[in-house]
Amino acid sequence: MPNKTPPSNNPMKYYFIALIILVLDQLTKLYFDHNFELYETVDVIPPVLNWTLAYNHGAAFSFLADQSGWQKWFFASLGLMVATFITVYIRQVPREARLLSIGLSLVLGGAIGNVIDRILYGHVIDFIHVHYADVWHYPIFNIADIGICIGMSLVMYDMLFLEKKRTIQ
């Protein structure tokens, strides 16, 4: 029989992690949006890292960016649903599943950061451009995207390697 563990008694520390991601994301986006022209590029670590202001009207990798505008509300709604689910679910996570809770909090902060952009501006502000000279370019991204990617990696690691250990007596 699976071992039932009590849920986390203090989700506030995980909400605080989400808040840190959200604040860092929004402050950096404001900085780049106010100090750069669209597509302006500044070398940071040539030839692999630039700051480049870009607007993403779609989702990851500009998915559906060329649509008529309905995608703004679709992705904003999807982000709000994910944020609501995580906000509620994080209270149910077992106390010892810290890595899972941290992963969820990173996704939460990132999701809210990108939803704010979609609602306020109609697009997501991106500025981190990883590339190799003019040979290879990764899509431009932001702090929210970093939080989402690292957070989902932690969630998947927990699912694959730690979840079973928590349920075995």
From TrEMBL:
Pfam families: Peptidase_A8. Its EC number is 3.4.23.36. It is a multi-pass membrane protein. The active site is at D126, D145. InterPro entries: Peptidase_A8. Its main location: membrane. Pathway: Protein modification; lipoprotein biosynthesis (signal peptide cleavage). Keywords: Aspartyl protease, Cell membrane, Hydrolase, Membrane, Protease, Transmembrane, Transmembrane helix. The chain crosses the membrane at residues 12-32, 73-90, 97-116, 136-157. Coiled coil: none annotated. GO terms for molecular function: aspartic-type endopeptidase activity. It is found in: Cell membrane. It catalyses: Release of signal peptides from bacterial membrane prolipoproteins. Hydrolyzes -Xaa-Yaa-Zaa-|-(S,diacylglyceryl)Cys-, in which Xaa is hydrophobic (preferably Leu), and Yaa (Ala or Ser) and Zaa (Gly or Ala) have small, neutral side chains. It is an enzyme of class 3 (hydrolase). PANTHER family: LIPOPROTEIN SIGNAL PEPTIDASE. Belongs to the peptidase A8 family. This protein specifically catalyzes the removal of signal peptides from prolipoproteins. This is Lipoprotein signal peptidase. It comes from Moraxella oculi.
